[in-house]
Specification:
The chain is mainly α. The chain contains eleven helices and no strands. It has two domains: 3-20 and 138-202, Helix-hairpin-Helix base-excision DNA repair enzymes (C-terminal) (Endonuclease Iii, domain 2, Orthogonal Bundle), CATH 1.10.1670.10; 29-130, Endonuclease III, domain 1 (Orthogonal Bundle), CATH 1.10.340.30. Helices cover 57% and strands 0% of the residues. Helix 2 (29-38) packs antiparallel against helix 8 and helix 5 packs across helix 6 (82-99).
Length: 214
């Protein structure tokens, strides 16, 4: 995609949704961290159902430690890989209490030191909790970046680095959410809704759908 096309791409998405929001429920930076960690290989809807009760009793790393791994599993057992996720959440809570005074750090390096926290999770927390213009490449962003021609790459990191270079600074803060939502609801994996896509004319995807899927 040309630079002018990318600018117009985000201008249109901004026009449709000026203040996009993630779809995970949370109450503060810590519960956001937990929710994002739980969302790996799970749906936001499924995570929200599990954390609705959990976040009524836990909002800090210390409270998570007090809850303990066994009781935590009772809250999240409907989520895939809940045993491993529970262990990592407790380990991360211990690190936050011991090494960061119970506060979620505002930099990627420290976030990635936490158990169960990779680059994507760190980028989501930095973007949503702290307002950093980070790009967390999930399956939706990876697909949209490659399909549109905006950021072609064979790995999530490659797509992330290309997006960082081509996204205009004025759109960087919310680009992460615009792209996720676009991929989730319009530029879908199996059959994109090209006829209803607001940026269809800017996209280089060759196999565009002609009739809007029912």
């Amino acid at each position: 995609m040309k630079k002018a096309d990318i600018t117009e791409f985000f201008r249109r998405l901004q026009e449709r949704d000026p203040e996009p929001r993630g779809e995970l429920d949370y109450t503060n930076s810590y519960t956001l961290l937990v929710a994002v960690a739980l969302s790996a290989q799970a749906t936001d809807v499924g995570v929200n159902k599990a954390t609705k009760a959990l976040f009524q009793v836990v909002s800090t790393p210390r409270q998570m430690l007090d809850l303990g791994e066994v009781r935590l599993k009772d809250y999240i057992r409907t989520i895939g890989l809940y045993n491993t996720k529970a262990k990592n959440i407790i380990k991360a809570a211990r690190m936050l209490v011991d090494d960061f005074d119970g506060m979620v750090p505002e930099n990627r390096e420290d976030l990635e030191k936490l158990a169960g926290v990779g680059r994507k999770t760190a980028n989501v927390v930095l973007n949503i909790a702290f307002g950093h213009p980070t790009i967390a490449v999930d399956t939706h962003l990876f697909r949209v970046g490659n399909r549109t021609g905006m950021a072609v790459g064979k790995t999530p990191l490659a797509v992330e680095k290309k997006l960082e270079k081509v996204i205009p600074a004025c759109f960087a803060r919310h680009a992460h959410h615009w792209l996720i939502l676009h991929g989730r609801y319009i530029c879908k994996a199996r059959r994109p809704s090209c006829p209803t896509c607001p940026v269809e004319d800017l996209c280089s995807y060759r196999d565009k759908t002609v009739v809007d899927p029912l």
